[in-house]
Amino acid sequence: MSDNRTELSQLGEFGLIDRIKSKFSITNGTTLVGIGDDAAIIDAGEQAVLVSTDMLLEGIHFDLSYMPLQHLGYKSVAVNVSDIAAMNGKPEQIVISLAISNRFSVEAIDALFEGIQMACKNYKVDLVGGDTSSSTSGLIISITVLGRAPKEQIVKRGGAKTNDIICVTGDLGAAYMGLQVLEREKQVFLTNPEMQPDLEKYEYLVGRQLRPEARMDIIHELRDRNCLPTSMIDISDGLASELFHLGKHSNLGVKIFEDKVPIDHSTYETAIEFKLDPITCALHGGEDYELLFTIHPSDYDKIKNHPDIHFIGHMHKDPDQHVLITKQQTEVPIQAQGWNHFKGQS
Amino acid sequence: MSDNRTELSQLGEFGLIDRIKSKFSITNGTTLVGIGDDAAIIDAGEQAVLVSTDMLLEGIHFDLSYMPLQHLGYKSVAVNVSDIAAMNGKPEQIVISLAISNRFSVEAIDALFEGIQMACKNYKVDLVGGDTSSSTSGLIISITVLGRAPKEQIVKRGGAKTNDIICVTGDLGAAYMGLQVLEREKQVFLTNPEMQPDLEKYEYLVGRQLRPEARMDIIHELRDRNCLPTSMIDISDGLASELFHLGKHSNLGVKIFEDKVPIDHSTYETAIEFKLDPITCALHGGEDYELLFTIHPSDYDKIKNHPDIHFIGHMHKDPDQHVLITKQQTEVPIQAQGWNHFKGQS
């Protein structure tokens, strides 16, 4: 290590990515879009190949004390598929690298692959390769997904125009509240192992955390309705963070309305129970894997009756203004409070 | 964990891969070849896209006490590029997932990316995406590489015919001996930290371990000479293990000659110094990342004068016979002694 030591926490995840990105340039003609969107875009004739990758680590991204291995397998594929969905593409292949310590049995790895298989079947994705290795500590799953889309159908983060309508699918904050519930039950169990967790009341929230779905259904439905979003991203880090990405890439501001942000009643009630503000959970809770996208106002009629698409605001021309209009009609700035993975780790 | 617990070590790495492979089928028309070769093959019109992935873990694949981060970055790209070379493809894009504990400074990560950048430049590969995360233990690097080749130029493991000549590039066993030297010096240093390691004599071997090159030069030269191998694989696990792969996929046996196997004089001398048999190091030492391929006998004249290609034997029709003819003209069976990553780990 040199004398000048800069901590990773000073830079943060996005700072690190920007630093890396600044050092690399594109030299191959087939690289259409590199670092910076949900997936890279590679030339393949009339079509383009989309590539995205995600790594999940035990102790960081999942806790096997409450995450069944089947669910983990399913989720690890779903979060990758979600990145292809966010480009308006169709996922087709995955490769999986796995590091396993010998506390895992063959049966445990079978359970993991049952979940992977179920997700592959559900999303019509082929497992085409990978790498296996031992691990001195926990389980590590690294997946790269390849997708495909006709070039003119690809939707990036940066295509929104002023007055485009901001849409979000499903509901937000549920996966985050599910995690809070699971963490609380774990603490109860650690204190008193005879206590059986009562999760029935929180079934929806826990399910959203343990077994999220990529919204490929929405991608197909938008296509059926001939509605091509102008920009799109999947919500992995939280609505606020993703809104900032859309704004930054489109060089616009965003205005959203608190009363339009979809929050399930159980998310709402559980947030109150945990003394958390529901809108904060929806804005900053991650891992919902819903889609956030913008449409041209003329496309509104095509999807206005869709039961699972919500219209939460619009893009405006000032790229420095990202605002939330509260239920009390107050305008408050949205904070780009993402997660800093590098803080407080040892 | 269930009552029936099977240890991963009972299955081994290849057993685990076979077990996984048997559960997955291919459903997408664009998946031309899935699990089982150096890279998967994906349809992209006249061309095919090749995909391969490798994960490197601290404490398993590298030891930062003697592996400089620049070299690690370079090597992590090179080993992936090598898989594309082994398909007779041209590497074009990589995505990198990185897990980093906060014992690493920004400057350390910069050093890692300097090596990655150098390799990207050298192999003309674009870094197009990735994922960063914190790690509770060591450094983890997972890379997926995309390559490209005209479909009729792709060389698989399974195309060899009886009497095809078995060729190997460079020399073998050097990376393994380099590792032995580094491990010995580490032990000396741990016993007496004032001892300065004297690595000059072993410079070639250590270099082969720390900074291997993918043999893209050979791929280009074979193309220039209009010589298309009938089967090919890169030597990551050791010559013996890779010969078994070629034999199995081509449904043939292999016969090689001990005196034809290329071993550098420093590998030879250092093996003797370590009381190891040089041919065993060449057969079973991994990480040389040389190319092993077969050619039709009619192509021999095209490459017979190439200074870095060695002709070590030929394929024969009995798939159950893999033999080495020793310098004493004795025929001995080749053992498929790969590495079992799952043995002896905690």
The residue fraction in helices of chain A comes out at 25-40%
CATH architecture identity of the largest domain in chain A:
Alpha-Beta Complex
Largest interface: A-B, 86 and 86 residues
How much of the residues of chain A is beta strand, in percent? 15-25%
CATH topology of the largest domain in chain A: Phosphoribosyl-aminoimidazole Synthetase, Chain A, domain 2
N/C terminus separation of chain A: 17 Å
Q: Over the alpha carbons, how many angstroms does the gyration radius of chain A reach? A: 20 Å
Write out the CATH superfamily name of the largest domain in chain A.
PurM-like C-terminal domain
How many distinct folded domains of chain A?
Answer: 2
Q: Order of SSEs of chain A, N→C?
A: HEEEHEHEEEHHHEHEHHEHEEE
Classified by CATH, the class of the largest domain in chain A is Alpha Beta
How many beta strands in the DSSP annotation of chain A?
13
Q: What strand order characterises the main sheet of chain A?
A: 8-10-7-11-9-12-13
Poorly predicted regions of chain A are none
> Main sheet of chain A, how many strands, which sense, barrel?
7 strands, mixed
Name the overall outline of chain A: globular
List the total number of helices of chain A.
10
Report mean pLDDT of chain A, rounded to a whole number: 93
Structural class determined from secondary elements of chain A: alpha+beta
In terms of quaternary structure, what is this?
homodimer
